[in-house]
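User: Sequence in, structure out. Go.
Assistant: Echoing your sequence, followed by the structure tokens.
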Amino acid sequence: MEDMLQKTEVQIDDQAFALGELLKEHNGQETSVMNLRGINNWTDFFIITTVSSKTHMDGLERHIKDYCRSNEIDILGNSGSRRKSGDVDDEWRLIDLGFIIIHLMTKRVREFYDLERLWRPTSV
């Protein structure tokens, strides 16, 4: 299995944009692919999309996992293994691929945390 650490920037870029398109194809709303290179040293991209329900979030997560399996991309951690109804996972799910971090968020949580504003490059 190909390790994400050995991928080139172009390969990572292609995968980030392909995952963004995948989310759009499955009705992720206001999908944003943010290049974070030069802003931090622990990931290259955030992909953020708004979901309409917990069921929609579960479906998007399944599509992401299928894409990753087909493209030999490791998902870090145990996404989805210990969920209970009412958990924060009902409104925000983070899927860590190493160089790409995917955020599936309800509209309410996305507006509250406003990750795009927090991670926007600042000028000096």
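User: And one key feature?
Assistant: The chain has one domain: 4-118.
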